[in-house]
Design goal:
There is one protein chain. By secondary structure, the protein is mainly α. It is built from ten helices and no strands.
Length: 201
Protein backbone atom coordinates (compact mmCIF):
# COMPACT_ATOMS: atom_id res chain seq x y z
CA UNK A 1 0.00 0.00 0.00
CA UNK A 2 1.36 3.41 -0.91
CA UNK A 3 2.04 6.04 1.72
CA UNK A 4 4.10 3.85 4.05
CA UNK A 5 3.05 1.62 6.89
CA UNK A 6 -0.47 1.80 8.26
CA UNK A 7 0.93 2.70 11.67
CA UNK A 8 3.03 5.57 10.21
CA UNK A 9 -0.06 7.52 9.19
CA UNK A 10 -1.37 10.48 11.21
CA UNK A 11 -3.78 9.12 13.83
CA UNK A 12 -7.46 10.11 13.54
CA UNK A 13 -8.25 13.42 15.21
CA UNK A 14 -10.24 16.62 14.77
CA UNK A 15 -8.60 19.75 16.16
CA UNK A 16 -11.66 21.75 15.15
CA UNK A 17 -13.98 19.55 17.23
CA UNK A 18 -11.57 19.68 20.17
CA UNK A 19 -11.49 23.49 20.06
CA UNK A 20 -15.28 23.61 19.76
CA UNK A 21 -15.68 21.39 22.83
CA UNK A 22 -13.32 23.54 24.89
CA UNK A 23 -15.01 26.74 23.76
CA UNK A 24 -18.48 25.36 24.54
CA UNK A 25 -17.33 24.36 28.02
CA UNK A 26 -16.32 27.96 28.69
CA UNK A 27 -19.60 29.38 27.40
CA UNK A 28 -22.38 27.16 28.73
CA UNK A 29 -22.75 24.96 31.79
CA UNK A 30 -24.92 22.39 30.02
CA UNK A 31 -22.21 21.96 27.39
CA UNK A 32 -19.64 21.66 30.17
CA UNK A 33 -21.61 18.88 31.86
CA UNK A 34 -22.10 17.06 28.55
CA UNK A 35 -18.38 17.20 27.76
CA UNK A 36 -17.17 16.14 31.20
CA UNK A 37 -19.59 13.18 31.22
CA UNK A 38 -18.57 12.08 27.72
CA UNK A 39 -14.84 12.79 27.61
CA UNK A 40 -11.65 12.47 29.59
CA UNK A 41 -8.51 14.56 29.05
CA UNK A 42 -6.86 11.58 27.33
CA UNK A 43 -9.50 11.73 24.58
CA UNK A 44 -7.89 14.91 23.22
CA UNK A 45 -5.24 14.47 20.56
CA UNK A 46 -3.59 17.90 20.89
CA UNK A 47 -1.46 18.09 24.03
CA UNK A 48 -2.43 21.70 24.74
CA UNK A 49 -6.11 20.91 24.29
CA UNK A 50 -5.64 17.93 26.61
CA UNK A 51 -4.05 20.14 29.26
CA UNK A 52 -6.84 22.71 28.97
CA UNK A 53 -9.58 20.10 29.29
CA UNK A 54 -7.78 18.61 32.28
CA UNK A 55 -8.07 22.00 34.02
CA UNK A 56 -11.72 22.41 32.98
CA UNK A 57 -12.55 18.86 34.07
CA UNK A 58 -10.90 19.42 37.45
CA UNK A 59 -12.76 22.71 37.98
CA UNK A 60 -16.09 21.06 37.14
CA UNK A 61 -15.34 18.12 39.42
CA UNK A 62 -14.81 20.57 42.29
CA UNK A 63 -18.09 22.31 41.35
CA UNK A 64 -16.32 25.57 40.60
CA UNK A 65 -17.71 28.05 38.05
CA UNK A 66 -16.18 27.63 34.61
CA UNK A 67 -16.09 30.53 32.15
CA UNK A 68 -13.32 32.30 30.19
CA UNK A 69 -12.34 34.50 33.17
CA UNK A 70 -12.31 31.78 35.85
CA UNK A 71 -10.54 29.41 33.48
CA UNK A 72 -7.80 31.93 32.74
CA UNK A 73 -7.42 32.63 36.45
CA UNK A 74 -6.98 28.91 37.09
CA UNK A 75 -4.43 28.69 34.27
CA UNK A 76 -2.46 31.47 35.94
CA UNK A 77 -2.72 29.84 39.35
CA UNK A 78 -1.23 26.69 37.88
CA UNK A 79 1.41 28.68 36.00
CA UNK A 80 0.35 27.22 32.67
CA UNK A 81 0.14 30.48 30.70
CA UNK A 82 3.06 29.65 28.42
CA UNK A 83 2.01 26.02 28.10
CA UNK A 84 -1.46 26.83 26.75
CA UNK A 85 -0.34 29.81 24.66
CA UNK A 86 -1.84 32.72 26.57
CA UNK A 87 -5.18 34.52 26.47
CA UNK A 88 -5.16 34.77 22.67
CA UNK A 89 -5.07 30.99 22.36
CA UNK A 90 -7.93 30.62 24.83
CA UNK A 91 -9.97 33.31 23.07
CA UNK A 92 -9.66 31.22 19.90
CA UNK A 93 -11.64 28.46 21.64
CA UNK A 94 -14.58 30.76 22.19
CA UNK A 95 -14.36 32.26 18.71
CA UNK A 96 -14.48 28.77 17.17
CA UNK A 97 -17.96 28.11 18.61
CA UNK A 98 -20.76 29.48 16.40
CA UNK A 99 -23.31 27.86 18.74
CA UNK A 100 -23.12 25.68 21.85
CA UNK A 101 -26.14 23.71 20.60
CA UNK A 102 -23.74 21.32 18.82
CA UNK A 103 -21.58 20.68 21.90
CA UNK A 104 -22.76 17.08 22.32
CA UNK A 105 -22.09 16.35 18.65
CA UNK A 106 -18.58 17.81 18.85
CA UNK A 107 -17.88 15.81 22.02
CA UNK A 108 -18.89 12.59 20.23
CA UNK A 109 -16.51 13.42 17.39
CA UNK A 110 -13.64 13.84 19.86
CA UNK A 111 -14.57 10.61 21.64
CA UNK A 112 -14.91 8.61 18.42
CA UNK A 113 -11.54 9.83 17.13
CA UNK A 114 -9.97 8.85 20.44
CA UNK A 115 -11.53 5.39 20.22
CA UNK A 116 -10.09 4.93 16.75
CA UNK A 117 -6.64 5.94 17.98
CA UNK A 118 -6.91 3.40 20.78
CA UNK A 119 -7.91 0.73 18.29
CA UNK A 120 -4.85 1.51 16.20
CA UNK A 121 -2.63 1.29 19.27
CA UNK A 122 -4.30 -1.96 20.33
CA UNK A 123 -3.79 -3.41 16.85
CA UNK A 124 -0.10 -2.57 17.08
CA UNK A 125 0.16 -4.17 20.52
CA UNK A 126 -1.73 -7.28 19.37
CA UNK A 127 0.55 -7.59 16.34
CA UNK A 128 3.56 -7.61 18.65
CA UNK A 129 1.89 -10.27 20.78
CA UNK A 130 1.48 -12.42 17.68
CA UNK A 131 5.23 -12.50 17.18
CA UNK A 132 5.93 -13.64 20.75
CA UNK A 133 6.02 -17.32 19.91
CA UNK A 134 7.53 -18.24 23.27
CA UNK A 135 4.27 -17.36 25.06
CA UNK A 136 1.29 -19.70 25.41
CA UNK A 137 -1.27 -18.94 22.72
CA UNK A 138 -4.16 -18.94 25.22
CA UNK A 139 -2.35 -16.31 27.27
CA UNK A 140 -1.75 -14.23 24.15
CA UNK A 141 -5.41 -14.47 23.17
CA UNK A 142 -6.51 -13.41 26.65
CA UNK A 143 -4.27 -10.36 26.52
CA UNK A 144 -5.44 -9.45 23.02
CA UNK A 145 -9.05 -9.72 24.19
CA UNK A 146 -8.26 -7.49 27.17
CA UNK A 147 -6.93 -4.76 24.86
CA UNK A 148 -10.19 -4.66 22.89
CA UNK A 149 -12.33 -5.01 26.01
CA UNK A 150 -10.71 -1.96 27.59
CA UNK A 151 -11.42 0.08 24.46
CA UNK A 152 -15.07 -0.98 24.49
CA UNK A 153 -15.35 0.30 28.04
CA UNK A 154 -13.65 3.65 27.45
CA UNK A 155 -15.35 4.24 24.12
CA UNK A 156 -18.92 3.79 25.27
CA UNK A 157 -18.83 5.29 28.69
CA UNK A 158 -20.49 2.15 30.06
CA UNK A 159 -18.87 -0.28 32.44
CA UNK A 160 -19.10 -3.64 30.68
CA UNK A 161 -18.72 -6.82 32.68
CA UNK A 162 -17.06 -10.00 31.50
CA UNK A 163 -19.54 -12.75 30.73
CA UNK A 164 -17.64 -15.05 33.10
CA UNK A 165 -18.48 -12.70 35.97
CA UNK A 166 -22.18 -12.63 35.11
CA UNK A 167 -23.11 -16.25 34.32
CA UNK A 168 -22.27 -18.00 37.64
CA UNK A 169 -24.49 -15.77 39.86
CA UNK A 170 -27.20 -15.78 37.18
CA UNK A 171 -27.33 -19.59 37.07
CA UNK A 172 -27.27 -19.68 40.87
CA UNK A 173 -30.29 -17.35 41.03
CA UNK A 174 -32.13 -19.51 38.48
CA UNK A 175 -31.42 -22.66 40.51
CA UNK A 176 -32.59 -21.03 43.75
CA UNK A 177 -35.82 -19.84 42.11
CA UNK A 178 -36.43 -23.32 40.71
CA UNK A 179 -35.94 -24.95 44.13
CA UNK A 180 -38.45 -22.52 45.67
CA UNK A 181 -40.94 -23.14 42.87
CA UNK A 182 -40.70 -19.56 41.70
CA UNK A 183 -40.54 -18.46 38.03
CA UNK A 184 -37.14 -19.34 36.67
CA UNK A 185 -36.90 -16.59 34.08
CA UNK A 186 -38.91 -13.63 32.91
CA UNK A 187 -41.60 -11.71 34.76
CA UNK A 188 -44.67 -13.23 36.36
CA UNK A 189 -47.76 -12.54 34.24
CA UNK A 190 -50.36 -13.45 36.86
CA UNK A 191 -51.94 -16.11 34.61
CA UNK A 192 -51.48 -18.80 37.27
CA UNK A 193 -53.57 -16.87 39.78
CA UNK A 194 -56.12 -16.01 37.11
CA UNK A 195 -56.54 -19.69 36.20
CA UNK A 196 -57.02 -20.61 39.85
CA UNK A 197 -59.69 -17.97 40.37
CA UNK A 198 -61.63 -18.68 37.18
CA UNK A 199 -61.15 -22.40 37.12
CA UNK A 200 -59.00 -22.29 33.95
CA UNK A 201 -61.69 -20.74 31.76
Amino acid sequence: MSGGSLFDRVPPHSLEAERAVLGSCLLEREALLEATETLTPDDFYDQTHRRCFDVIHDMARKDRPVDPLTFWEEIQNRQLEETVGGQTFIAAFVDSVPTTANAAYHARIVRDKATRRRLIQAASDIARLGYQEGRDVAEVLDEAERHIFEISQSGSGKAFRHVGDILPPTFQAIEENYQRGEPVTGTSTGFTDFDRITGGM
